[in-house]
Amino acid sequence: MKIGILGYGNLGKGIECAVKNSKDAELYAVFTRRSPETVTVMTEGVPVFSADDLLSKKECIDVLILCGGSATDLPEQTPEYAKHFNVVDSFDTHANIPMHFEQVNRAAKEGGHTALISCGWDPGMFSLNRLYANAILPCGEDYTFWGRGVSQGHSDAIRRVKGVKDAKQYTIPVEAALEAVRAGENPNLTTREKHLRECFVVAEEGADLAEIEHTIQTMPNYFADYDTVVHFISEEELKAEHSEIPHGGYVFRSGVTGWNLEHKHMIEYSLKLDSNPEFTGSVLLAYARAVNRLHKEGQNGCKTVFDVAPAYLSPLSEEEQRAHFL
Amino acid sequence: MKIGILGYGNLGKGIECAVKNSKDAELYAVFTRRSPETVTVMTEGVPVFSADDLLSKKECIDVLILCGGSATDLPEQTPEYAKHFNVVDSFDTHANIPMHFEQVNRAAKEGGHTALISCGWDPGMFSLNRLYANAILPCGEDYTFWGRGVSQGHSDAIRRVKGVKDAKQYTIPVEAALEAVRAGENPNLTTREKHLRECFVVAEEGADLAEIEHTIQTMPNYFADYDTVVHFISEEELKAEHSEIPHGGYVFRSGVTGWNLEHKHMIEYSLKLDSNPEFTGSVLLAYARAVNRLHKEGQNGCKTVFDVAPAYLSPLSEEEQRAHFL
């Protein structure tokens, strides 16, 4: 399976690593909107091409993995390239998924290709767990917690505050809330009760730290609804202690069964990830394998993780899957 | 969707409860190998028929759920009924799954029906989690723990010991082993290091308790390889404290990603079930929904949970699934 990567940021690099560690995938090329000569990839012998050259390489690529952002890149790129390639993206703007799905579906069907959108861990593995758990336990409550992990959007929001030189923000599930859910108490939790926000901020020289802290803690949408802790640290400390991109989270289904709904059940799925982009890239590559197979079977159009039988994700034969995993 | 249940033990009752709590399923009848007049079901108006009458009702049943045992019932029943019905079973004799799969596949294809075998939580949901996690993290280690829960097989083994009137055995994961796995230590664990066995035994009057304890603790295959604790209790206490059938367990994938495999990741799936048969019945009913749909699409033959796209399990439309779960 020959993989093309469009966009060589953290996610693109994560996919490159996943391809290296996979036995049935090969990286054909990385495509970038930057000047290709300014981009160096890790895989020996793999070329970097301009995104403008993509269409001329369509015969060489089994699945193109789109590594752009959900705000402006993917809404354009995925429908555009689904006409010419089998594609996988990680589109995660939840409210716009129905529209994105329709646009990609139309393009993929027009081009006779297979597309899979909104892949990764949330949306992605967490979505799968919500669906499976709801199908099994129709009577119950869902809970999703995120973290401990770096939120890029919240870190960016802090960096835009006057007097801030650099920053990293961690989303942290509130332990008491996790425990209440795990104990089957089915609590009603406010935003503040579910997650904490912890910020590590490098201030510019002479900046008003109290003012920065206040601006962050009262920032609407991002921080105002949360308990937010702000730590001021040096640039060196930020680099030394906060340059990784960990993440993770929990999906719970707390349900009941029985003639009188008298028996409780708890389904819990959790991820602890040292590298969010490398794990996300690994999920995308597994689904690229599925997309490649679905395309060979003539199953065209837009899919999500819900539409893909798990067997398509594994490099093993069906007999081996039954022997090893069933 | 009209459901037939063959076999009205704990699992059959669990399915009956799941049907009651599901909006798109209806119980057509329960079939039994006992005298039908000796069996009373919970659902008002639902008849109990002899298993001998099953074939005459084939037009009335969309999916027949087979609730027999894996040792002798299902190896005969599933291939036999897959010729005439869409069927779901919970066959769990791991070594014999390939043979069972082939026999059921042949019968289902011959009859133009859809069959799904080895469904439940292990095999079933745990299998799915092993497959998904291995597809995402090809470099890593798998760990499965069972419990705390009642093992029917081990309880039966104790009941066969001379001087034992009744017994209940709990399989319990060793906390230190769970913690070592969760911490990403990838330990090599012996059988004894993974699980404890705790037995609650009602002895016959005048029985030699020390002898019973010794016989249990040294019983090959069942207890000899484990640390086994034996508690002697009264019949009343057994009834009051140990008449439920809880179970559960954990599936871990501890893997690495990165150019030099430098980032660790932990995927953990766990179940805490107040009622093993009701949860298992709920999984079987969700897969009965899938089997019914696959059959309508003409996808005949034998399937496992690996072959079923998650979307087939949910009573919601694909649009609703994307809106609620993605």
Short description:
With 326 residues, chain A is of the alpha/beta class.
Describe this structure in words.
Two copies of one chain form a homodimer. The first copy, chain A, is α/β, with parallel strands linked by helices and 326 residues long. The first copy, chain A, has eleven helices and 14 strands. In chain A, the strands form three sheets. In chain A, strands 3-2-1-4-5-6-14 form a seven-stranded parallel β-sheet, with helices on both faces. Chain A is globular, with a radius of gyration of 22 Å. At the A-B interface, helix 1, helix 3, helix 4, strand 13 and helix 10 of A face helix 1, helix 3, helix 4, strand 13 and helix 10 of B. Strand 13 of chain A pairs antiparallel with strand 13 of chain B.
Write the layout of secondary structure elements.
The structure is a homodimer of 326-residue chains.
Chain A: E1 2-6, H1 10-20, E2 26-32, E3 48-50, E4 63-66, H2 73-82, E5 87-88, H3 97-111, E6 114-116, H4 125-136, E7 140-146, E8 149-150, H5 152-159, E9 164-173, H6 175-182, H7 191-194, E10 195-203, H8 209-217, E11 227-232, H9 235-241, E12 247-257, E13 263-273, H10 276-296, E14 301-303, H11 318-325
Parallel strand pairs in A: 1-2, 1-4, 2-3, 4-5, 5-6, 6-14, 10-11
Antiparallel strand pairs in A: 7-12, 8-9, 9-10, 12-13
Mean pLDDT of chain A: 97
**What spatial order of strands do you see in the largest sheet of chain A?**
3-2-1-4-5-6-14
Identify the overall geometry of chain A: globular
Query: What are the segments of chain A in which pLDDT stays under 50 over at least 5 consecutive residues?
Result: none
Number of helices of chain A: 11
Helix and strand element order of chain A: EHEEEHEHEHEEHEHHEHEHEEHEH
- Name the pair of protein chains with the most residues at their interface, and give those residue counts: A-B, 71 and 71 residues
Report the structural category of chain A. alpha/beta
> How far is the first residue's CA from the last residue's CA of chain A?
26 Å
This entry's quaternary arrangement is: homodimer
Q: Helicity level of chain A, as a percent range?
A: 25-40%
Beta-strand content bin of chain A: 25-35%
The count of strands of chain A amounts to 14
